[in-house]
Amino acid sequence: MIDFINYLRNALDLLLITVAIFFLLRFLKGSRAMHVLYGLLILGGVYLLGQALELQAFTTVVKGLAEAFLIISVIIFQQEIRRGLARLGVAPLFQRVFQADRDLVQDVVGAAYQLAAQRIGALIVITRQTGLKTIADRGTKLDAVVSSELIISLFNPYSPLHDGAIIITENRILSAGCLLPLSEREHPKEFGTRHRAGLGITEESDAIAIIVSEERGKVSLAYVGEVIRDMTKEQMIRQVSELMATLVKE
User: Which domain holds residue 18?
Assistant: First the structure.
């Protein structure tokens, strides 16, 4: 019986390590920190080789370098670590139940495609569980009811607020002209500041970002650090509605 319990404990131990490594690689994929992980793996391999050859002085030096490397990495990549912790906090386990507001989706998506038809760039952020009050406070506060007409007017090239993003929470436009954090991951070269900002805010939160490209007249959707490009209006309505109506357990 004791042997069986020990077997289960060891199996659980290996399973947890495997899951942890999987999520670590998933989180680091495409980021600068991935190169740091490669460096640590190389140092680990050199350390094991030194131990196998019983090179005590050499392994001591390598171990010291690895420890210093870890401390320096935490300092250099604190932004990536902060984003990872923020995304952990909005994992399904911690989210509440959402209901899609059909009028909100229709107004926002409709405005995005009208802007795309006119080749006017736009960045629309819809919050879900995670609030973006800090970012919204840095923009121009509006606290206005969402409407297609208002969104289009805000992104008019002659509007002083057209360069930034608008943030929508609970069917109200909190702020306009907001500056968002830029994604530092590797993306296609044609992605400009607007796309990188849309991806950046979805890496740090569970918000949805609708991105209108003025160069291509196309609309894309960013969510959890990924982007779906060149969607039709019907596809966008369906996708945003599904994201806003995702049923998850508390």
Answer: 2-94
